[in-house]
Amino acid sequence: ATLLHFAQVVEGDIELTPEGVAFAQASIIERKELFKKQLLANVPFAGQMLNIIESKSNKRMNIEFFEEIVRRSAGEEAAAQQIDTLVNWGRYAEIFEYDKHKKQVYIDASQ
Predict the structure, then answer these.
(1) What is the dihedral of CA 32, 90, 3, 73, to 10 degrees?
(2) Helix (H, G, I), strand (E, B) or coil at 17
(3) Nearest residue to 94 via CA among 51, 35, 6
(4) What is the pLDDT of residues 59-101, one digit of tens each?
(5) pTM for this structure?
(6) Distance of alpha carbon 27 from alpha carbon 22, whole angstroms
(7) CA distance linking residue 58 with residue 71, whole number of Å
């Protein structure tokens, strides 16, 4: 919540930001849009992933490509966790999808 600026910690207490209040009060569709906005604004690598996928003619990219980038700075275990989180967040925000059998992130052509 703090990474996406939905909440902040003040003197040991968690307080919702205005974005957090809006998220809590929003419909499911509005939540996804708010989440997408906050994700792209506050997690630069999510935007980089999206740009790379969009640049491909087939709008697909092997997940190993992104794992390797994160692995270089975060290490093996942390990279796996971070990529897993980014994939889940990206899917929730509907900025990309993940094919676990092909191990590819992609943009759905019907979007």
Answers:
(1) -170
(2) coil
(3) 35
(4) 999 999 999 999 999 888 888 899 999 999 999 999 999 999 9
(5) 0.87
(6) 10
(7) 25
Q: Mind giving me the DSSP string for 72-109?
A: HHH-HHHHHHHHHHHHHHHHHTTS-EEETTTTEEE--T
Q: Is 47 exposed, middle or buried (0-12, 13-18, 19+ CB in 10 A)?
A: middle
Given a contact cutoff of 8 angstroms between Cβ atoms, the answer to whether 65 and 45 are in contact is no
Cα dihedral 13, 1, 43, 71 sign: positive
Taking Cα atoms as reference points, which of 46, 87, 18 lies closest to residue 5? 18
Token code pair at residue 89: 């967040």
41 and 80 in contact (C-beta within 8 Å)? no
Is residue 17 within 8 Å of residue 9, measured between CB atoms? no
Q: What backbone torsions phi and psi does residue 70 show, to the nearest 5 degrees?
A: -70, -35
CA 89 – CA 35 distance, rounded (Å): 8
Give the whole-angstrom CA distance, residue 89 versus residue 22. 18
